[in-house]
Amino acid sequence: MRRPGSFGSWIALVVLAGFVLAVAGTSSPPVATAQQPITLKMQATWPAGWTLYDNFTMFADRVAKLSGGRLKIETLPAGAIVPAFEVLDATHKKVLDGAHAWAAYWVGKNKTAVLFTGGPGGTFGMDYIDVMGWMYEGGGLELYQEFYRDVLKMNVVVFPILPAGPQAFGWFKRPIKNLADFKGMKCRQTGMAAEVFTEMGMRTVNMPGGEILPAAERGLIDCAEWVGGVEDLKAGFHNVWKYHYTPGMHENVTIGELIINGDVWKGLAPDLQEIIKSAATETFFRWWMRWQSQNGEALRELQEKHKVQVLKTPDDILYEFLKAWDRIAAREAEKNPFFKKVWDSQRQYAERVVPTKRFMFPPYEFAANYYWPVKKAAAAPPAAPAAKPAPAKPAAPAKDKK
After folding, report:
1. Rounded to an integer, what distance in angstroms lies between the CA atom of residue 325 and that of residue 119?
2. Of the candidates 10, 157, 286, 303, which lies 20 to 30 Å from 91 by C-alpha distance?
3. SS3 at position 310
4. The three-state (H, E, C) secondary structure of 133-181, written as one string
5. Does residue 247 have a cis bond before it (omega within 30 degrees)?
6. How many percent of the chain have pLDDT more than 70?
């Protein structure tokens, strides 16, 4: 005999099985579950072996951990899918989900792009904390989004992520003592900094970072600017040039960017969006700490092991750079309303924070010189004492004239 209810249970199982078979037979894709991880494919504008790429992988690691594995970033080096300078367009077209780049690469589209890197010329005296303050407290990040969305018409969102500075002035095949010494030299520069150096008399060549060393080895360039410290050590520039000058005013607060396709961004859950924002900010500061430590070790190795002469950039070159940049920026502001809008915004924020910071913060060199005094150049040996003149012979008595 059947137990009560067993026939009804059997019927229910048959109906359920039929439903499952019907669903399985349809062509519709299965609905994603909360457990399925989302993977975003992003490409950098630099090779995988460089420290700038480490910033990219640190970000990917933080996103994976903060999201509990729900969101993963597949990091790809320069050229993996598109050439280095095409990642913005590729992200806009969704060939890539995102990119790890530097806004000044897009000055060919609109020169305002360089201002979102911090900009050449010292950014009105602001340092990294000040410029990030302008981004998050002074309206800079809103202008950054507006620039890509409304000016460049790019379907992307963007966040600051990479503090690759302060950058060195560069590598040279021979010493430079003043502005006249580098006029006519052929040097790798990029972005609007190249325009500034051209105005100062340098012959500039734009090329991706990965092409600098081969060009130097073939004698195609006399000098190059890249980053400085550990990044330049890894690039191997010391194998060609032995004169390294620092500091520079062209990228002293330069900031790299994280770009994400707009549709991809909108498709992410709100908490995953917040995780990306938090991971980008954390990566900015956490990577910068590590990088500065690496730079200290690299500088010592360049000098002691590779016999590189690390020299101070002549002041007249740095002042001339500021003057040339101000002229170029003013000309651009006259014809480019959005450039002027961003440039004025930076100046207004700097006017608020820089004088206050100068009042509240002691100069960096004050305590630095107390604990780590700058070694003065050895004094020249004293000149040998001049030979004493021989005693004069007494004059012969004059004879009376007759």
Report:
1. 10
2. 286
3. strand
4. HHHHHCCHHHHHHHHHHHHCCCCEEEEEEEECCCCCCEEECCCCCCHHH
5. yes
6. 85
**Distance between CA atoms of 163 and 119, rounded to whole angstroms?**
13
pLDDT confidence bin for 9, thresholds 50/70/90: very low
Within 13 Å, how many C-alpha atoms sit on residue 327's CB side?
A: 12
**Alpha helix (H) residue ranges in 305-336:** 315-335
Q: CA 279 to CA 106: how far, in whole Å? A: 25
CA atoms within 13 A on the CB side of 22: 6
Specify the pLDDT at position 384: 54
Residue type at 42 in one-letter notation: M
The alpha carbon of residue 117 and the mean position of all alpha carbons in its chain are separated, in whole angstroms, by: 7
Q: Note whether 345 and 112 are within 8 A (CB).
A: no
- C-alpha 77/C-alpha 100 separation (Å) is 9
Q: Do 168 and 225 meet the contact criterion of CB atoms below 8 Å apart?
A: yes
Query: Residue 45 burial by CB count (10 A; 0-12/13-18/19+): exposed, middle or buried?
Result: buried
Is 38-166+250-303+336-360 in CATH node 3.90.226.10?
no
The residue extents of the domains of the chain are: 38-166+250-303+336-360
User: What percentage of the chain reaches a pLDDT higher than 90?
Assistant: 70
